[in-house]
Structure formats: C-alpha cells, structure tokens
Amino acid sequence: MSYVFDPAPIPSVAVDGSEDRLPVRRIFCVGRNYAAHAREMGKDPDRDPPFFFTKPADAVVMDGETVTYPPETENFHYEAELVAVIGTGGRNIAEADSLSHVWGYAIGNDLTRRDLQLAARDKGRPWDFGKAFDRSAVIGPVHPVDKVGHPDTGAIKLTVNGEVKQDADLAELIWSVPEIISILSHSIELRPGDLIMTGTPAGVGPLVEGDVCVVSIAGLGTIETKIGPRE
Fold it and tell me: Domain named Fumarylacetoacetase-like C-terminal: which ranges (predicted)?
C-alpha cells in the first residue's frame, strides 16, 4: 500500500533518563479539577462528574523550547498540570485497577487562548480554538512509575519570570488520577500513549512575549517555556 502523500511523523515526548521516546497517541484534558480554579473561572466547584476536552497529539512541545505567541488571541494563558501517561490500554477500567494502567507521569503546561475559550463557552460552542491550537501542550520528560511511584500529594507550582503565579498541592485535585482514568475509560477505550492532563490549580493568568514560564511538581523536577514574538 502507498499513501497519496507522506504520513505525518509520530508525535513523541521525552523519557526521563533515557534516549528512548514515548509515542503520543491522544491528549485528554480534565476541565476545572481544582476547586479554587473552578471558582476563579466563575463555576461551582461541587463534585459534579468531570468533563474532558482534547488536544491534538502533534500539539506537544518539549521542555526548554520557545513557543511563539499564538495568533488570534490577546489573552494567552499558562496552566500548570500533572500529566498521567497510559502504558496499558483498557476499557471500563475499575478505579481500584486504574493505576496499573499508568506508565509514568510528567509535568505539563496547558497553554490556552483564554479569550477564544471563554467566547466559545459563553456561546455554548466547543473549546477547540481556545485549547487545541498548534504547540499548545507543553509536556516534560515522562518519569516511569517504577522510579517515581504515583504522585498524589506534593507541591505543584508555576512561576513567570521568577514570580510565583500558581502554588498548590496535588492532594487538592477534585477527581484523583485513578478516578479520572476509570471514568474516562468507561466512555473511550484507553490505549498506550494516551496522555491525560489532570487539571490546573488557581492562579491562571496571561503570558506575553519574552516571558519565561517554569512549572515544577514535587518529585518530577521542572520544565521551562519561553514565549517568543508573534509571527
């Protein structure tokens, strides 16, 4: 079989301490999964069922890269997140079995065109243009479970030009990683290479050209992203 044009390269992310790469199949994101962030977005933080949106796999950006300030926005935001990486697929996964499907964890930054997201939300439209644009998913090296375990407590912090903007604890997640995996798997079959960005704490805010954004999570180190000029 031949293709009418060359297939796109397989998106991938780094693996901590290895030259190997981890192929990315899909990126799922959990919306409003910290109570304080739900409040700052004008929503009730009650424990309603979680909701999900997606980013394209080829939106991934490595640690240390520069992200050009994206088009069609005047309100470009950072969002620090813990990322769970699926290594063993499955559907209808029981919560008690969920963590056995995780290969590792990474630090993420869910870059967001907030003005486009909110305009779509207010009109009852999908968030795609606000969330799923080019180079919108900064993903650091993946740390295998056999090295870092399953982080469920510890600091998650984001700074811009050295100033702390987000400072919370993973224990503040409304829906835990095992719950998220189980709920998602009852709707969509998970497969190796699926990434789940688990939500961001309060303190989201704008980035401008020249900013340096650093995200840290206890036990996973830090990642850094510089914002470049508009093209």
Answer: 27-227
- Residue pLDDT, tens place only, 33-54: 987 766 766 666 666 788 999 9
Kindly indicate the confidence band of residue 123, based on its pLDDT and cuts at 50, 70 and 90. Answer: very high
**Cα(104)–Cα(170) distance, rounded to whole angstroms?**
16
The sign one gets for the Cα dihedral 62, 14, 179, 184 is positive
Phi, psi of 183, deg, nearest 5: -65, -45
Give residue limits of the domains in the chain. Answer: 12-228
11, 21 contact by CB (below 8 A) = no
Residues in contact with 43: Cβ distance below 8 Å, sequence separation at least 6, in sequence order = 32
Instruction: Note if the pTM is more than 0.70.
Output: yes
Q: Give the range among 36-45, 102-111, 143-152, 172-181 with minimum mean pLDDT.
A: 36-45
Is residue 196 within 8 A of residue 178, CB to CB? The reply is no
CATH tag, 12-228: 3.90.850.10
Computed over every residue of the chain, the mean pLDDT equals 95
What tokens were used for 205? 């805010």
CA distance 178 to 92: 12
Q: 133-166 pLDDT, tens per residue?
A: 999 999 999 999 999 999 999 999 999 999 999 9
Length of the chain: 231
Q: Tell me the HSE value of 55 on the side-chain side, using a 13 A CA sphere.
A: 30
**Tokens (6 digits) for 201:** 């704490």
